[in-house]
Fold:
Amino acid sequence: MSPRRRRKARGKTEGIVAFGCCFEVRITQHWQGDEGGKTMSKTLKKKKHWSAKIQECSVSWGGSVGELMAVVEVRGGAELGQFPYVGHVVSEAMVIHGGRLPSPGDVLLEVNGTPVSGLTNRDSLAVVRHFREPIRLKTVKPGV
Structure:
């Protein structure tokens, strides 16, 4: 009987390449043994954090319409076990000063720098009503 040869694997990091908040790590495994130095390369990608996908916009709705609640509906809230999110949006009545208009279903994170995540629907609406226009909204797509 001939003695069996073991295959040993060892990994070494070739380099780390940075792309904003995500990076790519290349790992090369060298196999020793029967195949005579077989090389296998894998690339692992780290997913972007959800905070990199936050959208910010500055909007006003004009005095003729009334308050923002007539233009943007805020739904959800802590009493329902949800984050506040944007409901129906009347885009024709809004003026966008910067950024992208939030679409229905976007999670509402901040209003003029005041965090609203974790607040009840009533408290979220009170924060929105507190500020004069234009207001800055920070939102993120759900499930990101």
